[in-house]
């Protein structure tokens, strides 16, 4: 099966944010061997066996969290499945972890920087907590050209997920959060840990004092903003994880206006923006007025295979102010300088290589490979008669199993096909009845998983 995408690595004059992938054919030069399947173990701290206890009370907010974090729980169930079926070839299309090697143009730059640390001339110790100037400048010119974002608006980090928690520290406990429902679970869990929420309400499967903005096929996966009570902070991911939906220019304009009308701040998670192949905005800063109400986080994880390397960034414009006129960026800078010593100098060298012409082309090819995987998965579930969403502008396919428990479907697929997916309810109550299938996988594994899906649901 060969599916060719016509994508471009050049920036549009009207949309200078995130780059769409370049033209790529899966039978070209990214044909990669299958790695051996290992056991992913969820490591938990064992309960103390002694009777001694300190006099330190546990953080009550951590006690509010429900069960385990979604992805370690999936890993635990996967490990249990492998103990039950030790000879099974388990294929993981669950956690959104990249599988294809990092392009050599990028690893060569990291290797050169690493080797340089062995020399007097090439050694460097602590760097700027905000990131190295050449990388910040490259991010600004590559993704935010003509959008009024400057290099000193950009904070380089060890990943968008880490920045989400740092932003939560900036806003503190006395704010009300709004999240898409379903959405990436780190938004809700970090809000709970910060003390922004009430207790978990089992009857509705929600935490009190969080505004869950329902995103469903019926509303095009964009919430009805007129039905939402005023939040302080709005987490909004586009393209969305898990639904794969990307917001249109009109929708993001509505969101920015809603934030202005309510005096709210939008945290726009654009970690999958380079997967957008159409005209939808790749940055919220393409929307007029967004610099006064928005922050943007992003990452090299799903573009360059940096899930283990760890490198991302957050944009906080100078125009974004608290109610007393104090710049949000100055408080974030203080948190960064207090809690962080800056991203690894080796990973930053890799990030700079990512943004070279050769690096952009290589990233586009890898993204194209994953998008072909997505198309294969979409076609498979379509052929089986399922309602399928996402898959166009994101590496996730959102499959509807109406009237069924997401965890039951997850268990059925794992038990009968030895394929790991992700239960939709793990992303919020709006995900019940759905399963997320990730396109991150070797081509041979994706094809085999789809063959098993067809055998199960034919």
UniProtKB/TrEMBL annotation:
Membrane-traversing stretches: none
Keyword Methyltransferase tagged: no
Any one GO biological process: systemic acquired resistance, salicylic acid mediated signaling pathway
Molecular function GO labels: pyridoxal phosphate binding; transaminase activity
Keyword Transferase in record: yes
Cofactor(s) required, per the database record: pyridoxal 5'-phosphate
Keywords: Aminotransferase, Pyridoxal phosphate, Transferase
Cross-referenced SUPFAM superfamilies: PLP-dependent transferases
Positions of the Aminotransferase class I/classII large domain: 89-453
Database matches in InterPro entries: Aminotransferase_I/II_large, DapL/ALD1, PyrdxlP-dep_Trfase, PyrdxlP-dep_Trfase_major, PyrdxlP-dep_Trfase_small
Cited NCBIfam families: DAPAT_plant (TIGR03542)
Similarity section: Belongs to the class-I pyridoxal-phosphate-dependent aminotransferase family. LL-diaminopimelate aminotransferase subfamily.
Protein name as annotated: LL-diaminopimelate aminotransferase, chloroplastic
Gene name of the record: LOC106769459
């Amino acid at each position: 099966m060969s599916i060719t995408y016509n994508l471009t690595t050049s920036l549009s004059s009207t949309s200078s944010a995130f780059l769409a992938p370049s033209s790529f054919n899966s039978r070209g030069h990214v044909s990669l061997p299958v790695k051996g399947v290992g056991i992913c173990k969820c490591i938990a701290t064992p309960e103390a066996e002694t009777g001694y206890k300190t006099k330190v009370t546990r953080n009550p907010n951590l006690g509010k969290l429900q069960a385990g974090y979604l992805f370690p729980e999936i890993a635990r169930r996967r490990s249990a499945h492998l103990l039950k079926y030790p000879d099974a070839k388990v294929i993981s299309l669950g956690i959104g972890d990249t599988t294809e090697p990092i392009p050599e143009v990028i690893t060569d730059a990291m290797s050169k920087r690493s080797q340089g640390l062995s020399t007097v001339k090439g050694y460097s110790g602590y760097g700027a907590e905000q990131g190295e100037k050449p990388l910040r400048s490259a991010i600004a010119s590559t993704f935010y050209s003509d959008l009024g974002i400057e290099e000193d608006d950009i904070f380089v980090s060890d990943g968008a997920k880490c920045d989400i928690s740092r932003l939560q520290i900036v806003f503190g406990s006395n704010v009300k959060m709004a999240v898409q429902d379903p959405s990436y679970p780190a938004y809700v869990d970090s809000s709970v840990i910060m003390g922004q929420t009430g207790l978990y309400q089992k009857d509705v499967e929600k935490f009190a004092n969080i505004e869950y903005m329902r995103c469903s096929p019926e509303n095009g996966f964009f919430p009805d903003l007129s039905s939402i009570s005023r939040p302080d902070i709005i987490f909004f991911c586009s393209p969305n994880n898990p639904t794969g939906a990307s917001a249109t220019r009109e929708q993001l304009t509505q969101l920015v206006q809603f934030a202005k009308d309510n005096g709210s701040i939008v945290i726009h998670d654009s970690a999958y923006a380079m997967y957008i192949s159409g005209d939808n905005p790749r940055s919220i800063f393409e929307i007029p007025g967004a610099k006064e109400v928005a922050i943007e986080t992003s990452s090299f994880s799903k573009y360059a295979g940096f899930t283990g390397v760890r490198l991302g960034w957050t944009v906080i414009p100078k125009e974004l102010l608290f109610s007393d006129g104090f710049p949000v960026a100055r408080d974030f800078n203080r948190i960064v300088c207090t809690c962080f010593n800056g991203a690894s100098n080796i990973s930053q060298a890799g990030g700079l290589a990512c943004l070279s012409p050769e690096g952009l082309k290589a990233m586009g090819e890898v993204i194209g490979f994953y998008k072909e995987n997505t198309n294969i998965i979409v076609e498979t579930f379509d052929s089986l008669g399922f309602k399928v969403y996402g898959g166009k502008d994101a590496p996730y396919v959102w499959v509807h199993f109406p009237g069924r428990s997401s965890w039951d479907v997850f268990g059925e697929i794992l038990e009968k096909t030895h394929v790991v997916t992700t239960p939709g309810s793990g992303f919020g109550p709006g995900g019940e009845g759905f399963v997320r299938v990730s396109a991150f996988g070797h081509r041979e594994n994706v094809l085999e998983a789809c063959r098993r899906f067809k055998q199960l649901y034919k």
